[in-house]
Amino acid sequence: MGFGHRRLAIVDLSDGGAQPMTSACGRYTVTFNGEIYNYPALRAELERDGVRFRSNSDTEVLLVLYQREGEAMARRLRGMFAFAIWDTQERRIFLARDPYGIKPLYVANDGWTFRFASQVKALLAGGRISRAPEPAGLVGFHLWGSVPEPFTLYRDIRMLPAGHTMLVDSRGPHASRSYASVIEEFARGAEKPADLADLPELVRAATLDSVSAHLMADVEVGLFLSSGIDSGALLGLMKDAGQSKVTCITLAFEEFRGTDEDETFLAAQVARSYGAQHIVRTVSATEFNQDLPSIMAAMDQPSIDGINTWFVAKAAREAGLKVALSGLGGDELLAGYPSFRDIPRWVSLLRLQSAVPPVGYLTRSLLRLLGLGKLNPKLPGIAEYGGTYAGSYLLRRGLHLPFELKEVMDPEFARSGLNRLDPLRRIESASEKVPLHPISRVAALESTNYMRHQLLRDCDWAGMAQSIEIRTPLVDSVLLRALAPVAPHLKDQASGKGLLARAPRTPLPDAVISRSKTGFVVPTGQWLSRSTPATASLKGMASRAWSRQVLANFAAPMPTSLHSDVTSVPVHQTLKPKAA
Amino acid sequence: MRILALMTDAFGGYGGIAQYNRDFVAALAAAPGVEAIDVLPRIAPDTVGALPDRVTQHPARRNKLIYSLAALAAANANRPDVVLNGHLYHGPLARIIARRTGARMISQLHGTEVSHKLRKRHVAPLAHSDIVLTVSRDTLGLLRDQVLSEPDNGMVLANTVQPEFTPGDRQAARARFGLGNQSVLLSVGRLDQRERYKGHNRIIELLQALRASGRDVIYLIAGMGDDQPRLEALAARHNVSPWVRFLGKVPYKHLPDLYRAADLFVLPSTGEGFGIVFLEAMACGTPALGLAVGGAPDALGDGELGYCVTAENLPAALAKALDDPRPDPHSLHDAVQARFGQAAFRSRVASIISSLN
């Protein structure tokens, strides 16, 4: 039985917050990754009940809450977290992960030993976990560009699902249990939409509340500022929440100078209008190539994204920050992506013909025959996948479509992986839980797929590698409960991003509101094109080339026997032999 | 809790799987909350003997259809809470019964049956079991390769060693098998052409070198089967025939003495689902050596109980193991009992079954 921990001290910088931390009674020990934003309120409540704390750390609150409330304590937490509590009396471990899945928690059970860690690499480093491949993980990476939960590249390592808890005792791990569901929250919101007239105030109050909560720290909290609405609104709300000094970081690229994708001009305007300190950090192709080995070493599971986060976190560290807010999640919560328009449209257009499966297959074959696949390799799949939410989502977000897999991986392995991952059924059965409104449905899809598997994972490995804690006020369970009832209005009656832009007391400048969405974009396509010129012409193609390069850095997992490299000597050789 | 156990054989059965099933049923019967266990065997060639309390064993029914009808009738009559799918091939029947009666389902995998590609109809019952018990970590891995369950339903329930395997009078044991002062290597296992993975040949091939380096070693092979002529010819080819003795099938009651007589138990097998013979040898106080392949590392405790070596290291490890001082037999026995004794087995079974409540 062992816990280990490496700390990035943010709340209670003294050794009082050191981990693993044991309760005053000695019965419980916790190791914890993340932040509990409502910790001050929880602590105050517990102190009113007579609890005396030994530290000023949110970690200690976990111990006390578990002692008093058991497994139900997970529902009381607002924040990003993955933690394990060892109960010496019951001899069991309680594990929990936050509702959105901001923090990762990987588990491995070989039938004898249960192991857990915040990274796959940490589990592999021990050398005792099989590296047998998980075809569903690899297929997932080729389909989405990141490895979808609960899978990893390895058969014996899985993610504890977001919003779940798990008990492990002498019997082994018990089935994990859901205590919070993002999908169900959107479903509840779609059932009981808010009043249209209330939307501006609702969004203002809820976002201000979340930003205020996310500012809890004993160190300065900075901001990743793009030229978009999400991060700009965060800046205004930080000011509204009373933070006088804000350091903002914006990335700039030579390649984008003077183009629409150059963030610096508008970002500077936003920073100026809120009186924030603004740092523009220019990243060159040379620096990218220099950092590439470190990026690959830090990447826990393969991902086609995360480069932006790497550099913006690097810039934040250079600026002396340990914590920064990110606008991640605004598009998912407030319908900012084109998918919110496209997916419902495709589904209503193609629903009928998708009920006749050969039509889709034949269309695909015909379009590929006509060579349209060369123009856009996903295009031939439109009739086959466009008729359902899951299929349309795959079309919209997919790196490859299932019929292309045999071209990028071993066909037998691909078949097995597709069977296990069963991507369409997996997504459709989840999205069917939000039947009432197309926008809520897409919001649920985006939040629990692209954001959870790609954006949040990238934030974690890239931020942690730079010792920067990235906080996401727009990815927050309390905010979600407040704003899920807004989503149903976001198609025709209201613009989600407009509401967000006007949430700060001083609204964002009009130039920012009217600009089309970019977010943090990195010219990896152009940087890569120097090594692979043939693939540079199309954005999608560049992603594919990049995905191959990323994957090549992950040594292909070998289906070897678990113990093939173990040679050991029995303990009896260490026992003193008695006279024969 | 009422349990319906669909097993190939248990009481009155012969061999490793029957033994495991008897141990499992007895442990279940002793677990808190278990009211009755109905065992339905396909075969029972030997005398059934006394059954544990709360256990009923139905007559053996070899015919598949008759067996299935009997199982359905027993399920209707006794309304089980848990259906025990004792063999891969009973999966579809077990699943039908579990669905009809609303019972939970536990499936058992004994080792090698998942090393080949499973048929679809055998995959679904495993995927839908509440628990799949595998005999080793390796078998659990093979299961996961072919069957995806969410949440993962696989658990390891290792073999248990029978209480009669204990250290004893070593001199008397050696005298019984006519052994002098030589170092004795011993293997126990079937000599089946389909089970050549057991690796008797690897030891025969190393014998000459061991003797040439001044060790007076002989190799005893207990077990019979159609692969014996090949092994005899191999010994002749390596000029070690005088030092390789084929004992044939040694009666079960003589096995403890045979293990005690040996200096080192060896089975460099690459295909063990678990390898109960390692446990038996070590429980008798004799050190054991196997390859770090398949289920053997479990029985060898990853090298904490026995020598667990790679195939490349086998020659050196074999020589070293012969030269190492013999461990204290009682310490070794106790270490094996602590992990694989009946008490450990029963408490594991009780905790597994309690999780279905």
Any overview of this molecule?
- The complex is a heterodimer of chains A (580) and B (357).
- With 580 residues, chain A is of the alpha/beta class.
- In chain A, helix 6 (199-214) packs antiparallel against helix 22 (477-483).
- The longest helix of chain A has 16 residues, at 199-214.
- Chain B has two domains: 2-160 and 341-354, 3-Layer(aba) Sandwich (Rossmann fold), CATH 3.40.50.2000; 170-339, Rossmann fold (3-Layer(aba) Sandwich), CATH 3.40.50.
- Chain B is 40% helix and 17% strand.
- In chain B, the strands form two sheets. In chain B, strands 3-2-1-4-5-6-7 form a seven-stranded parallel β-sheet, with helices on both faces. In chain B, strands 10-9-8-11-12-13 form a six-stranded parallel β-sheet, sandwiched between helices.
- In chain B, helix 5 links the parallel strand 6 and strand 7.
- Chain B is elongated and about 65 Å long.
- The relative contact order of chain B is 0.12.
- The model of chain B has no long low-confidence stretch (mean pLDDT 95).
- Classes of the chains: A alpha/beta (580), B alpha/beta (357).
- The interface between A and B is large, with 40 and 47 residues.
Short characterization:
The complex is a heterodimer of chains A (580) and B (357). Helices cover 43% and strands 12% of the residues of chain A.
